């Protein structure tokens, strides 16, 4: 009995190591620190972030959805009264019908930017940025949740603006090419959502955000052919307008309603612009992903 109770040489008790219970599982199966546990997409986390962002702007929907619709409608009233009198036509349609699609997509883009540019900036200022960065979400999932919520707000604003304009006398919102309305509307919303996310990463106070809004987004939107056709401009300003990505969004969106645009009246010209916008957004999304991956202005 004494020999049976004696501890064998080299046993775990003699060496000081702790035996592993086979029924309890091997601790070595856990990944090292810093290695993600999720192999695929964290669907629950992504959906939770998306719904958090959607509920954030829906709580104040009077300000975030309906107020932009009223403001955009005022633009239509002012410019239609000032420039649309005496039966003026642009691209073969009444001026109010010409300017309405541009105002709709402009409102969509500006509100997509406003939504995504607040998320991380608000967390920085309020000290709650850790609530966004700490959950087990990859950079791609974080970007997808924020951009998806911003696009959702853009679509809701676009529908609200279109509903308001549908009751305005002399405005026709009959769609000639549904694919162009859907594609260029989504591409414009995604582009401004990504720009807003980059602004939110860079900005450290609301003044920085306002500077990008007032000195970058607003001029690019207003000088993109929303209220005029670029053929009326001098050649040098036409070239500048064609270098503005907002121009392709607004002209392509307008083509979906009127069947005519500054880009061209053929499907080939519009398809080329649609592909170009898609590639531009892919490049912008990759750049935004790399910035998030680096942790610049977020984890310093």
UniProtKB/TrEMBL annotation:
GO terms for molecular function: ABC-type transporter activity. GO terms for cellular component: ATP-binding cassette (ABC) transporter complex. Residues 59-295 form the ABC transmembrane type-2 domain. It comes from the Bacteria. The keyword Metal-binding does not apply. It is a multi-pass membrane protein. It is found in: Cell inner membrane; Membrane. Belongs to the ABC-2 integral membrane protein family. This is Transport permease protein. It comes from Pelagerythrobacter rhizovicinus.
């Amino acid at each position: 009995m004494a020999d049976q109770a004696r501890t064998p040489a080299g046993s775990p008790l003699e060496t000081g190591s702790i035996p592993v219970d086979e029924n309890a599982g091997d601790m070595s199966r856990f990944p090292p620190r810093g290695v993600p546990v999720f192999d695929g997409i964290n669907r629950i986390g992504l959906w939770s972030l998306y719904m958090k962002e959607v509920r954030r702007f829906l709580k104040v929907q009077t300000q975030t959805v309906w107020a932009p619709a009223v403001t955009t409608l005022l633009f239509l009233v002012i410019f239609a009264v000032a420039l649309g009198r005496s039966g003026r036509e642009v691209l073969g349609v009444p001026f109010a019908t010409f300017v309405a699609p541009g105002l709709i997509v402009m409102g969509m883009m500006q509100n997509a930017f406003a939504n995504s540019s607040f998320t991380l900036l608000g967390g920085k200022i309020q000290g709650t940025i850790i609530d966004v960065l700490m959950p087990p979400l990859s950079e791609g999932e974080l970007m997808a949740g924020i951009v998806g919520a911003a696009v959702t707000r853009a679509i809701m604003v676009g529908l609200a603006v279109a509903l308001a304009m549908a009751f305005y006398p002399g405005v026709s919102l009959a769609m000639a090419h549904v694919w162009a309305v859907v594609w260029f509307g989504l591409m414009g919303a995604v582009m401004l959502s990504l720009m807003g996310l980059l602004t939110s990463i860079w900005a450290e106070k609301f003044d920085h955000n306002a500077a990008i809004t007032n000195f970058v987004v607003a001029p690019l939107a207003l000088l993109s052919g929303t209220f005029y056709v670029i053929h009326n401009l001098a050649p040098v300003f036409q070239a500048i307008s064609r270098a503005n990505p907002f121009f392709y969004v607004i002209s392509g969106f307008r083509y979906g309603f009127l069947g005519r645009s500054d880009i061209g009246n053929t499907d080939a010209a519009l398809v080329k612009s649609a592909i170009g916008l898609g590639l531009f957004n892919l490049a912008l999304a990759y750049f935004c992903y790399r910035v998030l991956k680096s942790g610049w202005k977020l984890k310093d």
